[in-house]
Each structure stands twice: as structure tokens, then as C-alpha cells.
Write a structure and sequence with these properties.
With 337 residues, the protein is of the alpha+beta class. It contains eleven helices and 13 strands. The chain has two domains: 148 residues, 3-Layer(aba) Sandwich (Aminopeptidase); 169 residues, Gcn5-related N-acetyltransferase (GNAT) (Aminopeptidase), CATH 3.40.630. Strand 10 and strand 11 form a beta hairpin.
């Protein structure tokens, strides 16, 4: 069996073939659809394409960034690369392809003199994150939570816990309605209200969220939904889809006693199931209680688990490949503040 690997900057050699490959595992973030939003952060995609007998059978995308403000000096000490989303594999000769991809990425990080590298999981599966020879300098562990929705909705609902079921019934009784409405202004207005209720809470960059919306709104990959009562918006969800997976990115709920949050997610699973989606991803949940962040580890995580989620271990790992250069960059950033 003959294997080969190609590296392409800015776009894959065959965009349609790459996106079809990503669709097999439903990995939106490794697809080309996420490249336009990342331009907001001036990040350049680098595609590592793995071939078996000249057929694209795997690969991974990294994003690169470096500061240009002080010319060559700042560029040399700030070079950063990130893997966001798992390595893509078709199921054919996976171990050999995984080895090939890891070797090529490691070689690339070295030859390009990358200062800092981050590998972040999205859908879960630690084995599909790039592995380096050295130990990471920082590790944040989490689980990726999802619900399989390729069943009758009655069976899906049977996995909800009693509190979730009770709140859904409460919302239905109160007359809460579910709306699909790709209104980014309305979504961001609710986000601001939600985070205003939280002490120390910081919403995602409105400009970045608008960038995602503007680049995806005409592709069919993005959906915004609301839960409303008496013409007031109480809950929202900003989701993306690719292949047979839907992924919840942003959203929130203004505190209320109507059960709008549970109702919204129940309706989302119904909505995506009717459109042929097989898995609905809730995003991150905490693997254990964290005393320093009980809001996430208990409140948010327990809310998501109320829908009977399955979980896959994942993580965010940061590697400092050039400690001296990284220290210089950190000092420079401190001086700029």
C-alpha cells in the first residue's frame, strides 16, 4: 500500500473532496467553512492531506498566526499554530495514516520554527489530537457531550432526567414557542443580557460572531433559534452543521421560571432529527467538579447532562516549543499594555 502526504497553505488541493472527507465524521471546524471566520484573527489555514494509493483518506488542518507589527523580530518570537478539531480519517488504514500525519505535523512545526502549539479537541477522541514528543505545558481536560438523535423522539426524550422533563412540560404549558430566525442582531442583544446577569462573565466577541454569521448564513451551515414567550426572547442557540452532526457553539438563557432553556434544546434535537442529523453536540462538560469554576463544572455541565448525553474524553493542550522566544513575546505583550 502506497501512502503520501501533501501540505497546502490557505486552502486544500481539492476543496470539495476535503469537505466531503470532513462530512464523514461531521467535523465542521476542520472543513474549509471555518476558514473565513478565522480571518478575523488573521489566522492562515495549513492543510495536511494524507493519501492512500492517490486517494484522499485523511488529514488535519492547522491555523497559523504570527505578529507582523515589529517586522522579522516579532514574527520570529510569536509564531503560533493551533489544531482546532480532530484529525480526519475515513476508517481505512487509520493507524498508518495517523502515524504519517503526526510525523509530518511534528516535522512542520520544527522546520517552521513554531514557538507555541495548541491542540484542541471539539468532538472528542484524544487519539485524534496531534501528539508531540515533549510534555504539554498546560492541559485543560473536558468531555465532549452529545446525544444520538437517530431514533424516535420518544426514545430520545426517555433519556432526559426528571428535572429536564419537568421544565419542558412547564414551558409547553406556559406557551413558550420555538423559532428559527437567523437574526444576528437579535441573538447578540440576548447574549449581552445573558452575560450581564453573570458576575465576571464575558460574552464572545460580537464582531467575531458577526463574522461567523456573515460567512455562513448563505451556506446552510448555520442556524439560529430562539425560545420566546409573550413576544419576549428568553433563550437562544447558535449552531453549525456538517455531515450528520450539529454543534451548539453559542447561546444562553435569561433567568426565568418557564423552562425555556430545556425546551429550546429539546426542540433543537427534534428539529435536527427531522433534517437527517444523527448527533447533536452540546459542547464541553466538566469531567469532575472544579471548585474554582463551579458554574461550568456543576451548573452548565449538569444542565447539558440532563438530556442524557453521552461523553467522549477530550482536552486542550498547549506546548511551548521555543521557551526563550515565547518569554520574549510575553514580555513584549506586557510592555504594550
Amino acid at each position: 500500500m502506497q501512502y503520501s502526504l501533501q501540505v497546502h497553505h490557505n486552502h486544500p488541493s481539492d476543496m470539495e473532496a476535503w469537505n466531503k472527507l470532513c462530512a464523514i465524521s461531521g467535523n465542521f471546524f476542520q472543513s474549509t467553512y471555518y476558514d473565513e471566520p478565522q480571518k478575523f484573527f488573521h489566522q492562515q489555514p495549513v492543510y495536511f492531506e494524507a493519501y492512500t494509493e492517490n486517494q484522499l483518506t485523511g488529514g488535519v488542518k492547522l491555523y497559523r498566526w504570527e505578529s507582523r507589527k515589529l517586522g522579522i523580530f516579532s514574527s520570529a518570537i510569536s509564531k503560533y499554530a493551533i489544531q482546532f478539531g480532530e484529525i480526519i480519517l475515513t476508517g481505512l488504514n487509520e493507524n498508518r495514516l495517523l502515524q504519517l500525519i503526526n510525523e509530518k505535523v511534528n516535522s512542520y512545526l520544527c522546520s517552521e520554527k513554531i514557538v507555541k502549539f495548541t491542540a484542541t479537541g471539539v468532538y472528542g477522541n484524544e487519539s485524534l489530537l496531534i501528539k508531540l514528543a515533549l510534555n504539554p505545558n498546560f492541559v485543560f481536560r473536558f468531555n465532549s457531550a452529545y446525544v444520538s438523535i437517530d431514533d424516535t423522539f420518544e426514545n430520545i426524550q426517555s433519556g432526559f432526567n426528571e428535572n429536564t422533563k419537568r421544565n419542558i412540560k412547564k414551558a409547553i404549558k406556559a406557551g413558550v414557542i420555538f423559532k428559527e430566525e437567523n437574526d444576528i442582531g437579535k441573538f447578540l442583544e440576548l447574549e449581552a443580557k445573558v452575560y450581564a446577569q453573570q458576575q465576571g462573565g464575558k460574552p464572545p466577541s460580537p464582531d467575531f460572531v458577526r463574522r461567523i454569521f456573515s460567512s455562513l448564513s448563505k451556506t446552510g451551515k448555520l442556524q439560529i433559534h430562539f425560545a420566546e414567550l409573550n413576544n419576549e426572547v428568553w433563550s437562544s442557540a447558535f449552531c453549525v452543521t456538517h455531515g450528520q452532526c450539529a454543534y451548539y457553539i453559542y447561546g444562553g438563557t435569561i433567568r426565568n421560571n418557564f423552562g425555556t432553556g430545556q425546551f429550546l434544546f429539546s426542540e433543537l434535537m427534534k428539529y435536527y432529527r427531522e433534517r437527517g442529523i444523527k448527533k447533536f453536540f452540546f459542547g464541553q462538560v466538566a469531567p469532575a467538579i472544579d471548585e474554582s469554576n463551579r458554574k461550568f463544572s456543576e451548573g452548565i455541565s449538569n444542565f447539558k447532562r440532563g438530556f442524557g448525553t453521552e461523553e467522549i474524553e477530550s482536552s486542550k493542550k498547549i506546548y511551548i516549543l521555543k521557551p526563550f522566544k515565547n518569554k520574549l513575546w510575553e514580555i513584549l505583550l506586557t510592555m504594550k499594555k
